[in-house]
Amino acid sequence: MRSWLPPDHLAWQVLEVTGELDLSKFAAAYRADGQGQAPYDPAMMLPLVLYCFFKGNRSSRKIRDACVDDLGCLVICGGARPSHRAVAEFLRRHRDEVRRLFVQVLGLLAAAGAVEGHSAAIDGSPVSGNASRFANLDAGQLAARIAALEAAVAAEAGAWLDGAGQADGADGRQPLPYDDEDDDGGGGGGDGGPGAGGLPRRLSALAARLARLRAAQDTLAVRAAAPGGPDARVAAARDRLARAAGRLARAEQAQAAVMEKYQAAAAAGKAWAGKKPVPAESNARIAGIRKNLATARDRLAAAQARAAAATPAKVSPADPGTRLLPAKNGGWLQGWNLQLTAARRQVLLAAELHDNPAGAGALAAMITAATANCELAGLAGRIRAWLAGNGYASAASFK
After folding, report:
1. Is the pTM of this model over 0.85?
2. In Å, how far are 106, 124, 290, 355 from 365, measured between CA atoms?
3. What is the pLDDT of residues 157-213, one digit of tens each?
């Protein structure tokens, strides 16, 4: 097979780099008791997946097909043909471990002297997620679907338990949530067959869908309370109003105390040192505080009006992490705000996904992530200047 590809082919480069990585944690994820089907070696699956990803192929089914007619995949796999389920399961099982390889690769680049300079640049770009932007739901729609699914789950579970009780009562056994004596763990059968954990397929699917909707509901609540959201702006305006009212109350109390002292001194015939005090209603400083209070009250009303008139926030039930973002060439996409930090020669120091279309909140997070990665890769203290566009500027980020 070595004669099939030139020495500088991407497949050889991927195999060479992955051969230098520590993959021991990949192997630790598999059982060692000899039970179950033998998995493909991570030392083969990892370069296969990376090679296909580098070529823009991120579909498990297309990766399976590439193992038949792509010479690079044939060389990496040595003629083996993993199924699309094996590829998808590998990515699902080792998602976090693949992500942690970022630091190992950065360490290899550092050891090779590829990380140059003392500055790093931060930039972002919207990328599409695996969800449709036309399927987003607002809080009311989510609540209605959750209520309907809860009723469907309760009805399905009740019917299942009733049927299990009748079947178990016929042979004198006690009814159980499920009987695993004949369960092969494969979830075979039709809709009434066992699914995950011995549950009927339909009940298992309904429960999984309900869990996704609840996760989307939680995400929507977090976004509503996030800085810059309508609810957060109303809360901030209400807090400013409360502070202004407190300042006015304290100033009026202090002025009233001064007036009492002045009146007591005048009644005792004592001279008053300083300027003659005036009542709180005539005090210029207190008048300014009252004006600030009125302004805060107006801003709260405006924030409440904008929140009431704002388009209801929505979330994707299929992938709650994604968000509706403005695309670079116009229009909208359902996805992420991909943030990258790069040194010279386009060596990436950090890569993170954010669900906020604005980049200001990502500046400190990207500096922190890149600094941590550099320390783990043996580059501590190398980056001393951080470059970012005006879109990242905010008082909170600078602080």
Report:
1. no
2. 19, 13, 40, 13
3. 888 888 766 655 555 444 444 343 333 333 334 444 555 455 688 888 889 889 989
